[in-house]
Specification:
This protein is of the alpha/beta class. About 40% of the residues lie in helices and about 10% in strands. The protein has helices at about 5-15, 20-25, 30-35, 50, 65-70, 100-110, 125-135, 135-155, 170-175, 215-230, 245-260, 265-275, 280-285, and strands at about 40-45, 75-80, 115-120, 160, 180, 195, 235-240, 260-265.
């Protein structure tokens, strides 16, 4: 049967099964669609050594790098340039010093096969910065972070995620002229290339009452279900370097693996997704809203 017919038949089966539970509805199709079901796990706001490597003591927390490795996943980390200055271990107001610098933690991530991409140097909201400092300052902030990242990885970053996805069209076009691809939640993008906001920043100890219910993992799976209902089986998922996010990764990865998803780095994701024609569901996808807002 031609591949297009298989995909259309799968979508019909999914829609016909809406009376079933979430797991019952899609699980039988996992094997058939696994070649096309891709997820790029991305993590913003680091490198945070206490998250990447974990903590010890009275209330130890697992390290995100170990957690991903145990689950066979390579991630992509959108890092903040100021953290990659020598001797820096994090924000003294909120973060725990585990005796490892941000640069050392970033190097460990790279050695384990993860990617580092650009989340600006200052982590300032770029629209406001452009109004007060000018468009060239915005480009310079991104490029300053890129230089810091390249000093760690030896590779020029290709992707930029603006803090809070906030950037003017002019600045975005300017960055594209400089060779960057800007990731956003804008409906102007193909849904397969549009970020999926996990809302994990609502689940920290300071914000836990706002955390999606019944759990963050189930809320993320629900977003996947909503996209699948439109025939979309490729997702760029946005998380943050948070201990609370690390804690849900085994459950979330296991659930997505069971549904036939394969985890890839962002570079691999872009290579695979942009090299194939849009599916029927992706052509009609604009009805799928992005989850807005965020602490990026």
């Amino acid at each position: 049967m031609p591949r297009a017919h298989i995909l259309i038949a799968a979508v019909i089966l999914l829609r016909a099964s809406t009376s079933c539970t979430y797991s019952e509805t899609r699980a039988p199709l996992a094997t058939a669609l696994s070649a096309d079901k891709l997820i790029a796990l991305t993590f913003d706001d680091g490198p945070r050594p206490y998250v990447l490597l974990g903590t010890t003591g009275e209330h130890p927390t697992p390290g995100l790098l170990d957690t991903l490795e145990k689950n066979g996943v390579k991630g992509t980390f959108f890092v903040v340039g100021w953290r990659l200055t020598p001797g820096t271990w994090g924000d003294r107001r909120y973060e725990k010093n585990v005796g490892v610098t941000c640069i050392d933690a970033a190097q460990q991530a790279v050695k384990r096969g993860h990617e580092l991409e650009d989340h600006t140097f200052t982590h300032i909201e770029l629209r406001g910065a452009e109004r007060t400092k000018g468009e060239q300052w915005v480009v310079g902030d991104v490029e300053r972070a890129a230089r810091a990242i390249k000093a760690v990885t030896g590779i020029q970053p290709r992707y930029v995620r603006p803090p809070d996805w906030s950037i003017s069209d002019n600045a975005r076009l300017d960055l594209e002229r400089h060779g960057y691809r800007v990731l956003t939640i804008s409906a102007a993008n193909s849904i397969a290339l549009r970020d999926v906001n996990s809302l994990d920043y609502l689940c920290t100890s300071r914000n836990s009452t706002q955390c999606p219910k019944p759990s963050l993992a189930s809320a993320v799976l629900k977003q996947v279900q909503q996209r699948e209902a439109k025939g979309v089986y490729t997702h760029i998922m946005v998380f943050h370097e948070l201990s609370t996010t690390t804690a849900i990764m085994p459950e979330l990865i296991g659930s997505l693996n069971a549904r036939g998803y394969r985890f890839v780095t962002l570079t691999e994701y872009m290579r695979l997704v942009t090299s194939k024609p849009a599916s029927t569901g992706e052509i009609a996808r604009s009805a799928v809203p992005a989850v807005l807002g965020g602490s990026q």
